[in-house]
Backbone:
């Protein structure tokens, strides 16, 4: 009737509850502290929602009534924005591909070159598109050239990071085979690495193209030509209903490009 | 002519891959290297074309030092040594023909190769290689669409396109089923007979080793423990090399027999379906 | 291959005809199309290409001035003021980005569930997705100009709210995609044990997507830092307004200092955020220096 003592002891001892992980606790605390500090720093106060709503509402009303007659005059700037985006995407993605080869240990054997490329790309990526807009505006003056150059630099950072991460994850087998035939590392990159990453790379290019359309609005505001300039001008003249007409059109264009890129993506895979 | 002179290979983690190996391989030999995983057979094969670096000792191929070779020298050397792998290592997204042309990259100037242009003589060589392994009709098919055996044949064609003096094979048939494995080994044997290319194959199937080799080298713990013709390599010798008694996994025909046995069991269980199942092609 | 068969006899040499190369027409047409596209765009753009020639020389000149500004003693006037202004405003940009991300995270989490086709009913999913699409299509800049600035006036709060609403859009989409990619097993098991819907979401789905979603939030924070610099130009607080000022005045020394502050702070925050992301996804601590660079 009595079970052996050892067997009983093994099955009824309950394990101690593990101590809660210090790391998670600290993380949550840090997040709360930072949030409070940040909220205080920017004077977070939602009171204006009901006190100043009236003043704001007047302006918002104008925004909600887009001036459709203005649409005709936006076609030109829109085409300019699209052209800027296309040129910047093509140039930026090509240079970005070359830089991504430098920024991956898989394709660059020299550790100094690799480190330098990664640091360079980190710096390039840390400046927002508007920073480049201002920079090139100061160098080449207002107009679409500033916008194109700004977007090119903006693109290089993004493409190089995304693509180099893909290259890092690539299947090494075919690379070894190419090495074994006596091919040089550039030849290996062209024939083994690039074909393997091509679908991912092209989808990054499409992503960057979409980003460029939106970014060129911003860059246009600081003087880079295209639809952004129109927004800036109309806003300064307080023609808010014109601005909202442009914005509605922008939403439509972005939506169409989204559809287009989806169908292209499907054809790629 | 391949010479190992007291070659030691120590991996960065401290593991010893080869331990003071000295041997010579004469041109035209068909050598099979056997041993347990980690015994050094893969290291031996891969050190010949420098995929694994030699830590001590000298390793010469056709009079050229592989140990301490500069990158440009190594590339030149590798262009004369062809290698096929267990996982075929083809670039799936490009065509069979383009994969074979990779074997001609060493002879193509950089700028031309970057735009994807190969000289007509190189393309002709690629086609001839494909014909020799009997898969030329798939030249424009994407490599990923081929079966395992077909991919390995394309890999052999890539090696042939290099016009090599040595062919290395690192477990070329481990991922293939028995009939295909025999096909690939027969291809290697035929190339060795007809073209006289020195062939060094790394296998863990002992019956294949005995059947196709001119010379068997047994490795254990990084040292050569057997070196002689297949006639001298009986099961006792293999047990010495492996340090344990042989199992069914060491013999390819065991796999074949197992497959047959499984099929028969299935046929019995299915009763009347047996006849139609046996008649269906694989 | 299930049954061992005799290997097929190989064709004799020369027996199989060489296949003809596939038509290159589509490829050539695509290349031509792209070329035409580029030329059309260059023509349409009416850019002042001649300025490009002067650009390198000018860049070197300005670059030199910027570096001069950097090398000046940061503790002497007026340079110490330049540095403290830049750093102070950059911190404000960080605050804006942080609050914006927090707002985005809090709201996008439930919205993500509403937009996930394996959780919410089809009608709800469609409506929610469209709302998210509209939010995503409108650049934060415009949100700021149109809604936040009029109501809240100039200042960082408007910027934070604009970024917050904008983040809801992208985070909502990414969260819903993560939810949809979740394997159904744990959810079914929880459901079948009698749990209610919210409980299932809390215990079966959320733990599976949490690492990925937290990684999204951190990545969004990095992006929002850049966004807050942009909004600053419009007067929504942060370092952007300073940037606009110094560029307008062509004060290259000060531009150099400001840009350096932006770059250094952004890179540092990126590193920390990247390391935390790695830790969250893989559950293994990573030393900060090794994480990205």
Residues:
């Amino acid at each position: 009737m009595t079970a052996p003592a050892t067997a009983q002891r093994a099955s009824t001892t309950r394990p101690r509850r593990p101590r809660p992980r210090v790391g998670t606790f600290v993380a949550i605390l840090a997040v709360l502290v930072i949030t409070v500090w940040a909220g205080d720093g920017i004077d977070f106060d939602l009171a204006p929602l009901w006190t100043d709503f009236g003043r704001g509402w007047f302006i918002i009303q104008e925004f909600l009534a887009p001036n459709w007659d203005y649409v005709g005059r936006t076609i030109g700037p829109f085409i300019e924005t699209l052209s800027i985006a296309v040129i910047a995407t093509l140039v930026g993605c090509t240079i970005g591909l070359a830089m991504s080869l430098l920024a991956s240990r898989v394709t660059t054997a020299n550790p100094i070159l690799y480190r330098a490329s990664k640091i360079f790309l980190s710096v390039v990526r840390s400046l927002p598109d508007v920073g480049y807009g201002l920079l090139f505006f100061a160098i080449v003056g207002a107009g679409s050239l500033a916008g194109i150059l700004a977007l090119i630099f903006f693109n290089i950072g993004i493409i190089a990071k995304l693509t180099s991460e893909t290259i890092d994850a690539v299947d090494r087998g075919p690379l070894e085979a190419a090495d074994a035939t006596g091919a040089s590392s550039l030849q290996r990159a062209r024939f083994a690495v690039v074909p393997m990453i091509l679908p991912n790379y092209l989808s990054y290019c499409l992503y960057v193209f979409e980003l460029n359309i939106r970014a060129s609005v911003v860059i246009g505001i600081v003087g880079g030509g295209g639809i952004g300039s129109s927004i800036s001008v109309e806003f300064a003249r307080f023609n808010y209903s014109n601005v909202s007409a442009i914005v509605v059109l922008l939403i439509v264009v972005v939506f169409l490009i989204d559809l287009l890129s989806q169908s292209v993506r499907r054809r790629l895979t | 002519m391949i010479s190992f002179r007291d070659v030691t290979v120590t991996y960065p983690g401290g593991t010893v891959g080869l331990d003071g190996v000295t041997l010579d391989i004469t041109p035209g030999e068909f050598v099979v290297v056997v041993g347990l995983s980690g015994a050094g057979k893969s290291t031996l094969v891969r050190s010949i074309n420098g995929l694994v670096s030699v830590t001590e000792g000298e390793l010469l191929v056709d009079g050229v030092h592989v140990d301490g070779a500069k990158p440009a020298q190594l590339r030149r050397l590798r262009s004369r040594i062809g290698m096929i792998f267990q996982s075929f290592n083809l670039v799936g997204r490009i065509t069979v023909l383009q994969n074979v042309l990779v074997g001609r990259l060493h002879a193509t100037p950089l700028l031309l190769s970057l735009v994807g242009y190969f000289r007509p003589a190189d393309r002709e060589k690629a086609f001839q290689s494909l014909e020799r392994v009997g898969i030329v009709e798939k030249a424009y098919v994407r490599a990923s669409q081929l079966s395992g055996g077909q991919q390995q044949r394309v890999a052999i064609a890539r090696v042939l396109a290099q016009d090599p003096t040595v062919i290395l094979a690192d477990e070329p048939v481990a991922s293939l089923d028995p009939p295909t494995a025999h096909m690939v080994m027969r291809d290697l044997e035929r190339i060795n007979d007809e073209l006289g290319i020195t062939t060094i194959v790394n296998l863990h199937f002992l019956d294949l080793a005995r059947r196709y080799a001119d010379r068997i080298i047994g490795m254990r713990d990084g040292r050569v423990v057997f070196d002689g013709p297949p006639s001298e390599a009986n099961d006792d010798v293999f047990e010495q090399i492996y340090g344990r008694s042989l199992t069914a996994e060491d013999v390819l025909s065991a796999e074949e027999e197992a497959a047959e046995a499984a099929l028969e069991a299935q046929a019995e269980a299915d009763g009347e379906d047996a006849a139609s199942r046996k008649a269906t092609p694989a | 291959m299930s049954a061992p068969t005799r290997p097929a006899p190989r064709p004799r040499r020369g027996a199989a005809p060489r296949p003809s190369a596939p038509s290159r027409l589509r490829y050539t047409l695509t290349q031509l199309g792209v070329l035409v596209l580029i030329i059309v765009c260059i023509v349409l753009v009416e850019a002042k290409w001649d300025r490009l020639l002067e650009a390198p020389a000018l860049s070197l000149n300005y670059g030199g001035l910027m570096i001069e500004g950097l090398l000046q003693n940061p503790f002497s006037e007026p340079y110490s003021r330049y540095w403290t202004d830049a750093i102070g405003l950059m911190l404000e940009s960080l605050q804006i980005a942080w609050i914006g991300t927090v707002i985005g995270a809090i709201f996008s989490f439930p919205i993500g569930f509403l937009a996930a086709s394996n959780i919410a009913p089809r009608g709800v999913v469609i409506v929610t997705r469209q709302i998210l699409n509209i939010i995503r299509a409108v650049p934060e800049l415009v949100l700021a100009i149109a809604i936040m600035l009029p109501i809240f006036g100039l200042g960082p709060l408007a910027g934070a709210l604009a970024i917050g609403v904008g983040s809801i859009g992208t985070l909502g989409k990414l969260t819903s995609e993560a939810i949809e990619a979740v394997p159904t097993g744990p959810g079914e098991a929880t459901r079948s044990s009698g749990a209610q819907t919210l409980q299932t979401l809390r215990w079966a789905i959320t733990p599976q997507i949490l690492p990925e979603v937290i990684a999204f939030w951190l990545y969004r924070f990095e992006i929002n830092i850049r966004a807050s610099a942009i909004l600053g130009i419009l007067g929504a607080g942060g370092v952007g307004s300073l940037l606009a000022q110094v560029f307008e005045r062509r004060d290259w020394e000060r531009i150099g200092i400001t840009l350096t502050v932006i770059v250094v702070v952004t890179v540092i925050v990126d590193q920390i955020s990247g390391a935390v992301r790695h830790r969250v996804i893989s559950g293994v601590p990573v030393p900060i220096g090794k994480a990205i660079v």
